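Build the 3D complex.
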Amino acid sequence: MSLDIKAIRSHFPIFQRETSDGVPLVYLDSTATSQKPLAVIEAMNNYYRRSNANIHRGVHTLAEEATALYEAAREKIARFINAPSARQVIYTRNTTESINLVAYTWARANLKAGDLVILTEMEHHSNLVPWHMLQAERGIELDFIPVTETGLLDLDAYQTLLARSPKLVSFTHMSNVLGTINPAAEIIRMAHEAGAVTLVDAAQSVPHLAVDVQALDADFLAFSAHKMCGPTGIGALYGKAELLESMPPFLGGGDMIKEVKLRSFRANSLPHKFEAGTPAIAEAVGFGAAVDYLASVGMDNVTAHEQDITEYALERLEEIPGVKVFGPSAQHKGGVAAFTLEGVHPHDVAQILDKDGIAVRAGHHCAQPLHEKFGIPATSRASFYLYNTKEEVDLLVNGIYKVKELFG
Amino acid sequence: MDDLYREVIIEHYKNPGYRGHLDPHNIFFADNNPLCGDHIEITIQINEDETVKDARFDGHGCAISQASADLLMEFIIGKPIEEVKQLNKQDILDMLGIDLGPVRLKCALLSLKVLKAGVYGLGEASDSLVE
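Done.
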């Protein structure tokens, strides 16, 4: 079934605006953050208009309502990724905090000097720096699954790395630059055979693919609401129950405790053990609404639509002389096209496109080591979501021709 | 098409007059824009009367950062060092002949930041030099 894009676009109020007089918005930056449908904006708005109260301890009507909404959203998110139970879904601020949560709790309780953590060369800084910090603090070792010329992970090299008995394999499900969709189930299966725990950075995959944490057999999986039609300021960490149970708490404070004495505390049960202080309640409600929205569209439809646009975009971009697109062919790739234009800096490309209302991102996209690997300081990146059209790809291509003309 | 890419900027980007490296030099300084990885380094020769004898920049980055570096080198040659120390954001914007938003302003001001850190003999280039 193909999506009714006109109907979908009408769900997003932002597409009614122009970037300047008579210039409509062509939003090709959903990999950085997605736009928000009215259903999400209204859910958060209604929460503040009708139900706002602090959660969990209150007994009054509003506190009950707020708590119910906050926890109902967790149930929705758990169903969306097929988690066995909502208590295995921890609210965080974003993917970065989810990964840090694992680094600060599970990793600090389980890793010692010399223990090996395997990452990949295509990681976002959020799945590099927490491990650099742990390396400096603990003397753990890091090694990396190499990226091939075509932008895929080298699984033979991975197999060789596994012989060194890593304690953790932490990798991105989908690269935010190359768009590569990594074979997560296989990577996890291989890690488990080697006795390693796995952490999946699913910031780019959960918004765009049907992700089933049980089918993947993921030990931890991290993602953010704002990249999947939800608000900023909230994300989630999924974990296997026995791991989450065994981990020490993360931040200390209210809500994460069962009992506090002057000199001691007992940690609360899951998921509250990891949620200290008043959380982002309205954002959780919005997160739940975003999941409802995507589920109503159908994730398989979202993926198929993006696949279609991406194939078309790669074809059109590659026909422009001087354009080089990075990453694998469309079949291994999500809706991302990072490219360079010979002789023109990516910032200039992005700036000139902006004059035509076309929003793309320029820079290293928080993946500096990956850019170094390909010998380029920066790329321009167009990314696609359920609301993008082939006509927008055509506008992008026309815009790039304009840039070429200007820099002639 | 638009002010930001005035012909003068494209021209200085594509055919810079002051790209290079002076050896010997009295002042050398280099810095990056951490947001986008743009890199600028400058070398300057100074006359006995404390005026700029010659100046060159090198590096890589967007048209705005490279063109403003070229314009700046052109501008300071022959000027007293004391005057160079007083250059500010507005001087760069006047040279470029455009107005810039906060993100691109960093690109435009990178060369001035590097230049001022160099002439003041500082260890590190800070944003406060160009505000």
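The mean pLDDT of chain B is 89.
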